[in-house]
Amino acid sequence: MSSDAAGTGSARSTYDVLWARFLDGTYTAGDRLPEASIAEELGVSRTPVREALSRMLAEGLLTPAARGVVVAGLDHDAKRRLFDLRRNLEGFAAELTAARAPRWTDRSCLVRAAERRSNGVRESH
After folding, report:
1. Comparing C-alpha atoms, which of 61, 26, 23 is closest to residue 42?
2. What confidence tens digit (pLDDT) does each residue in 23-70 have?
3. Cα(119)–Cα(125) distance, rounded to whole angstroms?
4. Distance between terminal CA atoms of the chain?
5. Pairing outcome for strands 62-65 and 68-71
6. What is the pTM of this model?
7. Residue-averaged pLDDT of the chain
8. Residue 118 and residue 121: Cα distance in Å, rounded?
9. What letter does residue 107 receive in the DSSP assignment?
């Protein structure tokens, strides 16, 4: 059994493993994800893999193909939405960190980041 699957056959842990692979670039746009191969690789039955892939299909991460599913490509609008989501999450994280930082901590940079988030200011990198 794969250490990736954390020794369980649950759909949730299988989903988590597959999601991590999306994040680390293991799966890229156009890759075919064969249910049987993934199940064998993770050392689980096809049922949790099927459930995880169905969830990813519903979330738009995958698209149906002639034989199974493939990793969806992102159009310009989808990339823009993801960028905006990430920007908002990072600002929110800074806001929470500033609010929870000890009093002796210089929170000015965190407060500025939170204010930029509140004002919708985009940072260029």
Report:
1. 26
2. 888 998 999 999 999 999 999 999 999 999 999 998 888 999 988 899
3. 18
4. 42
5. antiparallel
6. 0.57
7. 80
8. 8
9. -
Q: Which amino acid makes up residue 114?
A: A
- Asked if 32 and 68 count as a contact pair (C-beta separation under 8 A), the reply is yes
Burial of 87 (0-12, 13-18, 19+ CB in 10 A): middle
Rounded to whole angstroms, the Cα distance separating 122 from 87 reads: 8
Phi/psi for 91 (5° steps) reads -65, -40
Q: Is 73 exposed, middle or buried (0-12, 13-18, 19+ CB in 10 A)?
A: exposed
Of 79, 57, 58, 59, residue with least CA distance to 69: 57
What does the longest C-alpha to C-alpha distance in the chain come to?
60
Q: How far is CA 81 from the centre of its chain?
A: 14
Sheet strands side by side (includes 32-33): 32-33, 68-71, 62-65
